[in-house]
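Here is a typical sample entry:
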Amino acid sequence: MQSRADVIEHGASRSGLWLQQRRIQIALWIAVIEGLLVAVHVINRWVAIAIAIAAVTVYFFAGRESRSLTVRQISWIAATSQAAVVLIPFLLILVGTFALVAVGLLAIVALIALFSDRP
């Protein structure tokens, strides 16, 4: 019995099959590299969000219905990597907030320790 992954689509190109086998790894590497660029402010987070919206829109309205396996795979990789990149600014905000709360709590503990110390 063949699984869906074992079935080769009629007219599938070599490049389309190669992309299909490696699409998750490619999308993750793109997301990591672009995410780092967003984190160090080389790419503006609003630009990254706009690109993600465009990539996901193109995939849902054109890419997934394309007759070309290569086009389907490229649009999937683009949409997936860009959606992952959008998480980076939100994670930075979340981690930054937790870091500020932790520093605030440490400051409170330090002040309590300093004021409770008897001269």
